[in-house]
Design goal:
mainly beta, three-stranded parallel β-sheet, 5 helices, 16 strands, 9% helix, elongated
Length: 302
């Protein structure tokens, strides 16, 4: 049975097919009216998406472990316009995919451990979830200021991210930001967006203390999380976070005090922080300092 006769096909997975250089043409893929997901894994010789733009039902495209040398045409979109989720993991030479695609419905864009030079977000007006992690080479973000509906922005282990211009910052409401470098706050977000941010998660920050000056601007923050951070103390400016409702401390093994908690904190979660668990756990010598918090949860990793 040929591929074009699989009219009920919902998901197509191409896994380590080392002879494939192109996806099937339009006359084949166009017949797959129910195909909603394509996953391409380690197809290193792929140079053409063939007739993928004819897949009018395609919602999700995941590409893993490919060094694409794609042939592109300037007069047509490389990917189908109704695509909603696009994922790249351990890929290279993928800059042209976004540059040569019209993706007005794209909601989720995910990069992990990729070699990229530029990500152009200018026309991705429905983007709500944007993740970049493990992209260690220098790259440029362009078009952050054109976005207006981001819910989640995750930038982790990307030490050399730049904006196309200092003014090209995200300037609308953002619900949650996940970062490993506090300088990314002021690099990527406008002052207004920072002041309205409600959820911030900080991951893998190095040893010592955190420069807490930026916390003075987080006047709307309700949820703050620290994960796998090597800090020994919390920023003194945290005490001024009047709207903070929940604080999560996860795998912060060197953290040895909770001296600067906001007075109105409602929930404190501590997981895999051995020093804090010993000192502030029920029966610990410092437990009274946090006993006023309505909800206190200690969790231990197994």
């Amino acid at each position: 049975m040929s591929l074009q006769n699989l009219h009920c096909l919902f998901k197509l997975v191409l896994h380590k097919i080392l002879t494939i250089t192109s996806l099937p043409p339009e006359e084949v893929l166009g017949a797959l009216k129910n195909l909603q997901s394509i996953e391409i894994v380690d197809c290193y010789l792929l140079t053409s998406f063939g007739g993928i733009s004819a897949l009018t039902s395609l919602k999700m495209l995941n590409i893993y472990g490919s060094c694409l040398e794609l042939q592109v045409s300037s007069d047509r979109s490389l990917l189908p316009s109704q695509l909603e989720e696009l994922t790249f993991q351990e890929c290279a030479n993928i800059d042209v995919i976004i540059e040569h695609s019209d993706l007005p419905e794209l909601c989720t864009l995910y990069y992990r451990n990729c070699s990229i030079n530029k990500i152009n977000l200018t026309n991705l007006l429905k983007l709500t979830n944007f993740t970049i992690e493990g992209c260690s080479q220098p790259f440029v973000l362009e078009g952050l200021s054109s976005l207006g509906g981001l819910d989640y922005l995750w930038v982790w282990k990307c030490p050399k991210v730049y904006l196309s211009s200092p003014e090209d910052k995200y300037a609308s409401l953002l619900y949650c930001l996940v970062i490993d470098d506090l300088s990314l706050l002021t690099l990527m977000l406008s002052d207004k967006t920072i002041s309205e941010l409600e959820k911030l998660v900080i991951l893998s920050v190095g040893g010592g203390a955190i420069n807490g000056e930026v916390f003075k601007c987080l006047t709307s923050l309700k949820y703050l999380g620290f994960g796998a951070c090597q800090i020994t103390s919390l920023p003194t400016t945290m005490k001024g976070l009047a709207n903070l409702h929940t604080l999560l401390l996860d795998d912060c093994k060197k953290l040895d005090n909770l001296n600067f908690l906001p007075e109105n904190l409602k929930k404190l979660e501590i997981e895999d922080c051995p020093i804090l668990e010993k000192q502030y756990g029920n029966g610990g010598r410092k437990y009274k300092k946090i006993a006023h918090i309505p909800i206190i949860l200690f969790k231990w990793s197994t």
